[in-house]
Design a protein that fits this description.
Helices cover 69% and strands 9% of the residues. It is mainly alpha-helical and 137 residues long. It is globular, with a radius of gyration of 17 Å.
Length: 137
Amino acid sequence: MAKDGLKIVIGAHRLVNALDLATGALVRRYGLTLGQFAVLEALYHKGEMTVGEVRDKILSSSGTIPMIVKNLEKQGLITRRVNEADRRSAILSLTDEGRALIAEVYPQNEALLLEMLSVYSEAEQAALANLLKKFGG
């Protein structure tokens, strides 16, 4: 039984790595890193968030998020403003340019990932989704 558990971990890592490689290749064509894409995607779907909320949403380390945010600001894709409710934190939002970029890239990435996952039947995808939800909450 323990060997099956290890096979699950190895398989999950391989799946995530393959998906990340494909997404990485796509977003590089737009001058983005995976981390930058993740921040833009989070803001696109969830709206304005603090830096900490974005970090938690994209599962990034606290050490990498400041550089990602700084670079996205330099590119004119996001803005950062002081959070009036807690002046120690900043609120991030997409610029018009950032929104246009992620609106172009995200659907392509979604289609790419769905195509890659099509190796699983619809029933297998539903089962896998339920199993992963059970583990991750």
